[in-house]
Every structure is written in structure tokens, then in C-alpha cells.
């Protein structure tokens, strides 16, 4: 049963997301996930769209799945870094961070992966879906002190009800969120993995951009 607070949060999210313009569907072998890409992070939105156009996510995998944390898809860190090591003559490609406090690591958030670089710049070919878990006020208080950040009242409510991974806030760029298919994302996050967090049975996906007609139909269904 939905609580009044949770219902209000979902209504607010719906009103915000309906004002956005770009949607992507992940067609996975576990079901479909529909993503909204934020206009507040235009560089990451366009980066993801370009990667889709180039076919980088035509036969992709969720290749690092950590239960109650995140499900990572696209290229692995090791693959990217090894390629860069083999070709030192080529410039290292990263996308400047677009970190903003109002976009946070709630459950269902879409983030851009990166290595441990001080600029917090993102890879061009790695994404992750946040699953996380509900937080307590004590946990959020400790994170505020440790990271020198401040969670808004609405963020606190979201983290305590829907859950997420707040310890990643202010360190990675969030550039979208799941609006349909969270049950599929949960199923992916619960698959059996090996010691390297790789699913024993591959979880594959293809990313496609929704047409204007599909977006209109989607928004109408969500009203």
C-alpha cells in the first residue's frame, strides 16, 4: 500500500518528468526499461544519444551487477583503461562532470560511470542503474558530515522511502531515471553473479531512442 508521502513523491516526479523531452528504452532479455534523460545534464544526455546512434549499445551487457547497489552496463573500466594504455598516442576521452545537487542517487537513477579521476569526468560508454536500499536519518546525517553535503527534506524522504545510494552523491553524474520497468531493473540486480560481479547468465540489452509519437503515448499513459 502506498503511503501519502510516497504517493506525493511519485506525483512530483511525474510532473517533473513530463516536462522533459528525451526518452530511451533498454530492451533487455529480462524485459524492458524506459529511461528519461534529464535536460539539466545536456552533455551527458547527448553523449548517451550519440553512443546509441553509433551502435555502442546494440549488443551491450550488464557486466557488473552488485545486489542492492547498482547494475552497470556498457564497457568495463578494465576494457576502457587497457585500450587507453595500448594507445598512449591518443588523447584520453572523458566527458566533463555535470553534477548538480538536485539530481541525486535515488533508486532508479541513471548515472555515468567513471574512473577515479579528480575532475569526476565520465566515460563515454558506461552507464549504471541505481538500486540501493532505504536509508535512515542516522545514515544520512553521517554522510552529510563525511562528504560535507546537505540533503534536502525531499531527498531525505526519497532516500528513506524509495532508497538509493546517497554515498555516491556529488561524485558521479546522474543524467536520467527509470520511469517504467523498475521491476525489470530489480530482477537484473538480483541475478546470480561470479566473484567479479559478472552475471553467470548474460544480461543483454539494446538501447533505442523513443520517437515523438511513442513519447506522447507514454506521457498520456502516465497521466
From TrEMBL:
Name the InterPro entries on file. Answer: Cyclophilin-like_dom_sf (IPR029000), Cyclophilin-type_PPIase_dom (IPR002130), Cyclophilin_A-like (IPR044666)
Pfam assignment, any one: Pro_isomerase
Query: Under which main EC class is this enzyme filed?
Result: isomerase
- SUPFAM superfamilies per record: Cyclophilin-like (SSF50891)
Q: Which residues form the PPIase cyclophilin-type domain?
A: 31-210
**Transmembrane portions of the chain:** none
Q: Which PROSITE patterns match?
A: CSA_PPIASE_2
Q: Looking at the keywords, is Isomerase present?
A: yes
Question: Which Gene Ontology molecular-function terms are recorded?
Answer: peptidyl-prolyl cis-trans isomerase activity
> Which keywords, in A-to-Z order, does the entry hold?
Isomerase, Rotamase
Listed EC numbers: 5.2.1.8
What is the recorded name of this protein? peptidylprolyl isomerase
Report the source organism.
Answer: Pedobacter ginsengisoli
The root-end lineage is:
Bacteria, Pseudomonadati, Bacteroidota, Sphingobacteriia, Sphingobacteriales
Amino acid at each position: 500500500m502506498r503511503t501519502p508521502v510516497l504517493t506525493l513523491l511519485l506525483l512530483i516526479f511525474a510532473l517533473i518528468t513530463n516536462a522533459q523531452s528525451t526518452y530511451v528504452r533498454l530492451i533487455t532479455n529480462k524485459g524492458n526499461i524506459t529511461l528519461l534523460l534529464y535536460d539539466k545534464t545536456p552533455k551527458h544526455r547527448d553523449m548517451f544519444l550519440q553512443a546509441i546512434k553509433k551502435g555502442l549499445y546494440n549488443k551491450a551487457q550488464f557486466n557488473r551487477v552488485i545486489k542492492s547497489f547498482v547494475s552497470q552496463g556498457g564497457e568495463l573500466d578494465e576494457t576502457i583503461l587497457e585500450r587507453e594504455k595500448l594507445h598512449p598516442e591518443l588523447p584520453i576521452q572523458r566527458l566533463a562532470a555535470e553534477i548538480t545537487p538536485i539530481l541525486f542517487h535515488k533508486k532508479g537513477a541513471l548515472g555515468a560511470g567513471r574512473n577515479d579521476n579528480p575532475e569526476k569526468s565520465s566515460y563515454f560508454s558506461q552507464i549504471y542503474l541505481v538500486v540501493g536500499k532505504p536509508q535512515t536519518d542516522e545514515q544520512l546525517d553521517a554522510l552529510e558530515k563525511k562528504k560535507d553535503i546537505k540533503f534536502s527534506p525531499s531527498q531525505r524522504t526519497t532516500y528513506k522511502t524509495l532508497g538509493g545510494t546517497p554515498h555516491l552523491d556529488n561524485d558521479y553524474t546522474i543524467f536520467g531515471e527509470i520511469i517504467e520497468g523498475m521491476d525489470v531493473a530489480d530482477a537484473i540486480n538480483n541475478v546470480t553473479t561470479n566473484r567479479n560481479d559478472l552475471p553467470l547468465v548474460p544480461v543483454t540489452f539494446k538501447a533505442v531512442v523513443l520517437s515523438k509519437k511513442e513519447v506522447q503515448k507514454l506521457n498520456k499513459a502516465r497521466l
